[in-house]
Amino acid sequence: MSRFLRQSGQLTRLLRVSQQASLQRGVRLSSLSRATATPILRNSHATQLRCYASKPPRQDDNQKPKKDADEPKDENLNEEKKPDVQEEGAKKDESKPFPLPDGWIHLSKDEIKQMQVFYQVIPEAQRARLDEILKGIAETGAPAEIRDILGKLKKGPGNLSIMDKGRLMRCVFTMAERLAAWEVDQEKKKNGTFTQNNIGEDGKADPSQQARKDQGQNQGPGRPGDENTKTISVRISLMQTVLLLGIIMYSLDSFGGSMSQKQITWQEMRKAFLDKGLVQKLVVVNGSQVRVDLHPTAAQGDDKRQYVFTIGSVESFEKKLEEAQDQLGIPQSERIPVSYEAGGSTIGNILLAFGPTLLFIGLILYTQRSMGGRGGAGGMFNFGKSKAKKFNAESAVKVKFADVAGLEEAKTEIMEFVSFLKQPEKFEKLGAKIPRGAILAGPPGTGKTLLAKATAGESGVPFFSVSGSEFVEMFVGVGPSRVRDLFAEGRKNAPCIIFIDEIDAIGRARQDSGKGFGGNDEREATLNQILTEMDGFNTREQVVVLAGTNRADVLDKALMRPGRFDRHIYVDRPTMSGRQEIFKVYLKKIVTSEDIEHLVGRLSTLTPGFSGADISNVVNEAALIAARANADEVKMEHFERAIERVIGGLERKSLVLKPLEKKTVAYHEAGHAICGWFLQHADPLLKVSIIPRGQGALGYAQYLPQDAYLMSTNQLMDRMAMTMGGRVSEELHFPTVTTGASDDFKKVSQMARSMVTQWGMSDLVGPVHFDNDPNRMHKPFAESTAQQIDQEVHRIVEEAYKRCKDLLTEKKKEVGLVAEELLKKEMLVRDDMVRILGKRPFEDNEDFEKYFGGSKEESAPPPFPNDGEAPAPGDSPQPSPAFNELSRSEQRRL
Fold first, then answer.
1. What's the pTM value of the predicted model, to 2 decimals?
2. Are 398 and 391 in contact (CB under 8 A)?
3. How many angstroms from the chain centroid is the CA of residue 630?
4. CA nearest to 699, candidates 748, 644, 641, 745
5. ω into residue 705 within 30 of 0, thus cis?
6. Catalytic residue numbers, as ranges
7. Distance CA 507, CA 524 (A)
8. φ and ψ at 14, to 5 degrees?
9. Which tens digits make up the pLDDT trace of 32-45?
10. Are 894 and 645 in contact (CB under 8 A)?
């Protein structure tokens, strides 16, 4: 309040604007009346009549009043008579009182004088305007309630109740509106008074005023120069002033108690009031202050101040008061009453009671309004608002279809959607309709989301991207609401594309009734809403829906049917040619001097089964390894280390094995290497190592499997025999076995069970297929069938074990040579195996021979190493650059 009262400049400007508006309104109304008069009357009679309505026109000092010879006498007589008629009409209008509505009264002079007391805190510059307002209130009257309120205010601050304060503010609003209407009416009656200041002596309009008039006309209706706008400005000015007066009265009653209080001491109170018998009542406020209420006859003149004094404690005050009254001989029946009250104003108590609640409600409303301004409705806090991100041609998506490699079939399907949205007439002229949606399914990391990014970067239409998990929240009904909002935004921006990533989060198959746990399933409600939006009554062909998932087998059948997801695009891991294209894309940013074609071929051969994400990780790891070694470029050895790190994990340099454990690991890995070398259907061996890597891998053997999509029984048996080579080697060279072959047994058991239950490779069980679902509560076969399956699995594993043991028993010497070489070097590459074991007796695949120096010509086996010495030059072929043996220090840097 004090800050508002200090803004004297603002109130002064409001006063000046209102006065200028009144002046301009008078000029405009006078101009309007002149426009309807004849030219002769406007120039001679009408102008002079308006001038003499208030006072005679001014004359120059050099001119003397004289009679013009050419002017008729009767015209002068008209000029003298008509102003008298005008003056009489003006006086008659001024004397006519402003009519009072029902329930209104005219305030007395004492009541007007009482209201003047309340704005003594206003600066002098603003009191003149408030005096005018009070004069207007005296003319227009006030509600009868004001008299009662003024009577209570006259008794002193704090006498108004909450209801009285509400009545006061209601009366202030009513008075402000009525006073504004009265002043506008008064201005209309005084139009002639304002006109005389704007008319020249020659009867023509003042040029400056005419310019302002033209400017106001050019501004058009509804603008600052318009008549209605000026009237509203005057009303606002008056209402602001009257409201200010009401707020002052309101505040003085609520907070003015401290302003009208005078601090005294106990001794002064006793000497001035108590001893003279002027005290009517004593009020103890908050236990620390006493207010003295005097008898009404004790007030001196207009002094209405309250007297207060401070006490130390209530007990000491009561004791002093009792002693003082005993000394004065006041009987018990006439003792001064003492009351107690908790201080604070009514406003303060109300704020303390309702302030926190109002603040909380205001915070909720503000948050809802601010979030609602960001677009769309969605309930409180906009939980039902879709969280989809919108991309368009000007968005920051830089991925294009040229950046997507190895997925030619899937890319062709997606590009067809884009071309239809860009050129629909090409398809519509043949009667074709674009599919409603397409689902991208496949293993993780194969490029489903990358295809969606490329679509957003090249579609040229709005693209909305959202994750399936963003539809589900803690509140019921949020998922369907967000689906509705998403498709509503899509229809507004049609044609457009909506991409839902990981749609299996909300698109799982619905359960049969009775199988659930009861309650409301939010996923099913969200799925039902998606089904309705994709193919319901409120659908549009220009909204295309793309979705990505790794679990297309668990999706609801209604979601996968034609009309919703018409096309099912399976994005599989890339083949050899696909990996080459992907490597070419990622190698563009790598600094290397290697032959790109040869490098791409080698890396593609070394990474069978890798997805696009794996290839990206390999290239990035190679660059990091080269940077860690302070190399100027990325070489082939860096790529090899990166592949080893991705496949086997990080080297565990801190793990130090005991000599016996290290020897056991060497013979274990040597058994795997010998089986892979001498079994026809085993994968070609690339590298064998006894350096610990990853989690629990004390050694590993790296093979190069080819891209095979069908496997025969012989291939499966050779793989199982090769997998069991480590355990058989331990049995042949050590008196006891270890736990290092547990993972090998797991792989062999799974492969044998699949041969029996899924691939029909058992004569006893027959060509049948049983689902191998570990989460299934009941087996899909009988107990007798389960026994047959177990017997067949045991038989297949025994055959593989016998085949492996026969081979390693025959090659026991070679196993020892490879193991001892591993103990010396910790890592052997393919050329080391050729030097020790001779050329592999079986032909390798074409890709391996092309990129790793395989030869079909038979040659004599190289001599065995002699006491760890290197072979003489020319005795064995030089190793290829891809498998150069690394020194111990270089291996440790990995």
1. 0.55
2. no
3. 43
4. 644
5. no
6. 669
7. 8
8. -60, -40
9. 333 333 333 333 33
10. yes
